[in-house]
UniProtKB/TrEMBL annotation:
It holds the Pfam family Ldh_1_C. It is an enzyme of class 1 (oxidoreductase). GO terms for molecular function: L-malate dehydrogenase (NAD+) activity. Residues 28-170 form the Lactate/malate dehydrogenase N-terminal domain. This is Malate dehydrogenase. It is found in: Peroxisome. GO terms for cellular component: cytoplasm; peroxisome. The active site is at H202. SUPFAM superfamilies: LDH C-terminal domain-like, NAD(P)-binding Rossmann-fold domains. NAD(+) binds at G33, A34, A35, G36, G37, I38, G39, D59, N119, I142, S143, N144, M253. InterPro entries: L-lactate/malate_DH, Lactate/malate_DH_C, Lactate/malate_DH_N, Lactate_DH/Glyco_Ohase_4_C, Malate_DH_AS, Malate_DH_type1, NAD(P)-bd_dom_sf. Keywords: Glyoxylate bypass, NAD, Oxidoreductase, Peroxisome, Tricarboxylic acid cycle.
Length: 338
């Protein structure tokens, strides 16, 4: 199957034919915001994923360069670039999974909610495109404030008549990745052996690590619990301050987004027992959206697990989180309904 530059349409088609003839199948994935701080390393990681057969890279700037660069990687996914709103439809048509890291990041002193005014409109436009061009795709929403952008996306899809709550997932994987890392540090073990459920949402006190449910079963002193909770809830701010105006977490986020997207693709493929935390439409508590452990399958979120027993510290944390979470959800919903 000879081909050189994958940006050349003939060679892309030849490449796709080769894959079909070879019997290899895979999923079609689009990244919206692919030229950004998260988008670029995420594009690289998705190009390395053997479950991806076609990778569409969309942005309003710089996507041709990123596409040319990524397309030289000798992995099997076919890469195509799309630039500007007039190419959004082509970027989305036929996609199985759409990952959205488009939008502005925080600077020191800002909250995630301070990004609402700009990112709400970006997410609205992109979700309108999804409703029109790939209404059955799984959507992984990364753009902040996730506690509001997921309700925005849900409202856009409802308005378009395409809403399937099982297919819309706010990405909170970075909270789990951070929690696994700092808990492993305290326990003195390999982070790959650790699993910390992180529930609630994705901003400050709405990020609720369930340290009483850590695997392997572990106990922590009150000082350790305070330290770990603070590191997990403020991990994003730690990075924003260290980057001193140059943005927020990009590399650890790309890693987390790629890990989460891989779980979604394995679910779509029919693998059993794929369980991750995500911010989804939920009935586990009284709020309409909530992050908790979900089982991923062929249709997206196939099961949402109950929270399990919480200790007094976690129950108090949940009560504090609910108020902020409810306000962020309501803000997202009214942005579309107003
Ligand atoms: P960035 O500024 O480096 O990149 C954002 C990209 O989005 C840019 O390339 C920009 O051109 C593009 N973009 C802007 N408007 C667009 C539009 N209408 N359509 C398509 N693309 C558009 O920012 P970043 O560091 O990659 O962060 C992106 C977002 O992800 C931010 O909102 C950030 O807060 C969020 N984030 C979320 C998590 C999480 O855990 N969910 C973690 C880190 C960052
Ligand atoms: C994070 O948790 O790193 C992201 O939500 C980015 C941010 O603004 O903190």
């Amino acid at each position: 199957c000879p081909f050189n530059l994958q940006t050349d349409e003939t060679s892309i088609l030849r490449r796709e034919n080769c894959r079909t003839k070879g019997g290899s199948s895979g999923f079609k994935v689009a990244i919206l915001g692919a030229a950004g701080g998260i988008g670029q390393p995420l594009a690289m990681l998705m190009k390395m994923n053997p479950l991806v057969s076609v990778l569409h890279l969309y942005d309003v700037v710089n996507s041709p360069g990123v596409t040319a660069d990524i397309s030289h990687m000798d992995t099997s996914a076919v890469v195509r670039g799309f630039l500007g709103q007039q190419q959004l439809g082509s970027a989305l048509t036929g996609m199985d999974l759409v990952i959205i890291p488009a939008g502005v990041p925080r600077k020191p002193g800002m909250t995630r909610d301070d990004l609402f005014n700009i990112n709400a409109g970006i997410v609205k436009t992109l979700c309108e495109g999804i409703a029109k061009c790939c209404p059955h795709a799984i959507v992984n929403l990364i753009s902040n404030p996730v506690n509001s952008t997921v309700p925005i996306a849900a409202e856009v899809f409802k308005k378009a008549g395409t809403y399937d709550p099982k297919r819309l997932l706010g990405v909170t994987m970075l909270d789990v990745v951070r929690a696994n890392t700092v808990v492993a540090e305290v326990l003195g073990i390999d982070p790959r052996e650790v699993d910390v459920p992180v529930i609630g949402g994705h901003a400050g006190i709405t990020i609720l690590p369930l340290l009483s449910q850590v695997k392997p079963p572990s106990s922590f002193t009150p000082q350790e619990i305070n330290y770990l909770t603070d590191r997990i809830q403020n991990g994003g701010t730690e990075v924003v301050e260290a980057k001193a105006g140059a943005g927020s977490a990009t590399l650890s986020m790309a890693y987390s987004a790629a890990k989460f997207a891989d779980a979604c693709l394995r679910g779509l493929k029919g693998d059993a027992g794929i369980v991750e935390c995500a911010f989804v439409a939920s009935e586990v508590i009284e709020l309409p959206f909530f992050a908790s452990k979900v089982r991923l399958g062929r249709t997206g979120v196939e099961e949402i697990y109950p929270l399990g027993p919480l200790n007094e510290y976690e129950r108090m944390g949940l009560e504090k989180a609910k108020k902020e979470l409810a306000a962020s959800i309501a803000k997202g919903i009214s942005f579309i309904r107003k």
